[in-house]
Amino acid sequence: MNILQQRLTHLSSSVGRRALSTMKRGIEREALRIDGSAQIAQNSHPQALGSALTHPKITTDYSEALLEFITPVNEDIDALLDCLMTTHAYTMKHLDGQRLWPFSMPCYITEQTNIPIAQYGSSNSGKMKTLYRQGLTHRYGGLMQIISGVHFNFSVSDELWQLLYEQSDKSVALQDFKSAAYFGLIRNYRRLVWVLPYLFGASPALCPSFIKQGKSPYQFETSAKGTLYLPYATSLRMSDLGYTNNEQDALNISYNSLPEYLAGLSDAMLMHSDKFAQIGVKVDGEYRQLNSNILQIENEFYSPIRAKRVAKRGEKPSEALARGGVEYIEVRALDVNPFSPIGINAHQVRFLDLFLLYCLLSDSPDTADVEEAEITANLNAVVLTGRKPDLQLQRHGDDIAMQQWLNELFVDLGKIAELIDGEELAYAQALAHWQLAVDDPDKTLSGQVLNAILNDDDAHARWGVRLAEAYQQQLFEYPLTDAQIALFEKMATDSLAEQARLEAVQEQSFEHFLADYFNYAQ
Question: Is residue 502 predicted with pLDDT exceeding 90?
Answer without folding.
Answer: yes
